[in-house]
Structures are given as C-alpha cells and as structure tokens.
Amino acid sequence: MRRLYTTLNARFLCACLSLACLLPQSAYAADTDPAVRVLNASPEAIAADPALAGFVKQTAESAISEHCSRCHGPELRGAPGAPDLLDYDWLWGSATDSSAVGAVMQIQRTLLYGIRNKDCPPEQQSYGACAATRFSQMPGYLKMQTLNEAQIADLVEYVLKLQGGEADAGAAGRAEADFAVCTECHGEFGEGDPAFGGPNLTDAITLFGNDRETIRDVIANGREGACPPWGDTLDAAAIKALAVHIYNLAEK
C-alpha cells in the first residue's frame, strides 16, 4: 500500500483533495493506511479525526525538519529572502481562498512545483521556467534602464508612503506616474495581485526588508528568489500533510 501512494503523481494528488468532500466516510475506513486516508480527506475531516491529525502533524514536522527549516526556519517564521509561512500574507491566493480545501490546494501547488523552478528541459519551459512552477518576476529597473537613479529614489519614497512609513511627500508625488510600471503585479494602489504573485506593498510585511536601502536595491536590481519543487522528493501523502499542516498553523 505504501508503494502505491509514493508513486501517485501530482494530478492524482489534486484530484484526491478536490474529491475528498464527495467521498463517503466508508471510503477511508479506520483500518485503511493513514497515508491513503489523508489523501482522500478534506482538511476539516483530518482535523476531526485524531489519528489523521496525528499522522499529518508527525509527517509534516519531519518534512519541515529535513527540508523546509533550512530556509524558513524550524517554526516556519522565515528569514530575509525566505517568507514567513504563517503570517497570512501569502502570495498566489493561498490565504485569500474562501475554503480550506482551496487554500490547501494552493499550498500544494507551491510544494509540488516550486517557485521559479528552471530545472526542466527548454521545451517544457514557459517564460524561462518550468511551465507548472509558480512564476513572477521583479525586474531590475535600473539594470534595464527603464528608470534612472532619480526616479528610483522617488519610487522608494512612494513605497514607504504606501506602507504608512515616513516618506518625502514631494518625492512620493513625483513617483506617482512612474508607479505605473509596477501596477501590473502590485495593483493600482499597491495592494498586490495573487494572480501574479505580486506582493502587497501597503502593509509592513516584506520579504527582504523595508528600509530605504533595501527597497532601492530591489527596485534597481530586481529579485528572483526560488523555492525548489518537492514533488519528486516527498510522496503525495507528505505533500498533502505538509500543506494541511501549514494551513492549520496559519489559521491559528
């Protein structure tokens, strides 16, 4: 039975999750392998079953210790360049999904396919990265010569203003027109866009820092951090358990 779920592919994993609410309780009886039961259960069903909840917690904590903690920390609270996974300020719609099933599926996609993964043949790439991976791009506007130093300095003040920090009002005013290059991903008002993985610029939560020097460097030189895909490293049950565990911790 274990050999069965370790070879499940990503398509079957997503189908298991989306169909979980349609399956009768008899479909995962008490004497069934807990890994298979987890694959067939919704997040709510897992939370209501102590055996499944225990399996999810143990499996996820093992994966975190072995794989995730090196970047996100043992408590998943992140570090400069590695996001806090529990602050409910996630990208790509995870935290804004209206259902637990939908949110867990969003997390699973990130775990399965990674972020900006480029480790695939050219014929399987889209925009220079694997087609299924999460992909967004923060270009370096000074490197691209789209903006000059003075424009970037003004944009720094504009971003600080969006965050509610102390900013030069004159510089922020001058930057309003240049902010148009940012709206495709960050939204008209800097609120972010989960469809593009565009961060919300109006809160104090940042991936690299919110001091002037860091903001200037991000705008001038860009950022393209990566998270590896775990679909070939962790089996389907571990991916599901990890996604549910992260969602549960963020909910708390």
Fold-level CATH name of the largest domain: Cytochrome Bc1 Complex, Chain D, domain 2
Query: What's the domain count?
Result: 2
Top CATH class of the largest domain: Mainly Alpha
CATH level-4 homologous superfamily of the largest domain: Cytochrome c-like domain
SS class: mainly alpha
Backbone shape = elongated
**Quaternary organization:** single chain
Alpha-carbon Rg, integer: 21 Å
Write a short abstract of this structure:
The chain has helices at residues 2-6, 10-19, 34-39, 43-48, 50-72, 100-113, 149-162, 169-175, 183-186, 212-221, 236-251, and strands spanning 125-126, 129-130.
Question: Could you characterize the architecture of this molecule?
Answer:
By secondary structure, the chain is an all-alpha fold. It is built from 11 helices and 2 strands. The protein has helices at 2-6, 10-19, 34-39, 43-48, 50-72, 100-113, 149-162, 169-175, 183-186, 212-221, 236-251, and strands spanning 125-126, 129-130. The longest helix has 23 residues, at 50-72. The chain is elongated and about 65 Å long. It starts with a helix and ends with a helix. Residues 1-12 and 14-30 have low confidence and may be disordered.
What's the arrangement of secondary structure elements?
Layout: H1 2-6, H2 10-19, H3 34-39, H4 43-48, H5 50-72, H6 100-113, E1 125-126, E2 129-130, H7 149-162, H8 169-175, H9 183-186, H10 212-221, H11 236-251
Antiparallel strand pairs: 1-2
Helix pairs in contact: 2-6, 5-11, 6-11, 7-8, 7-10
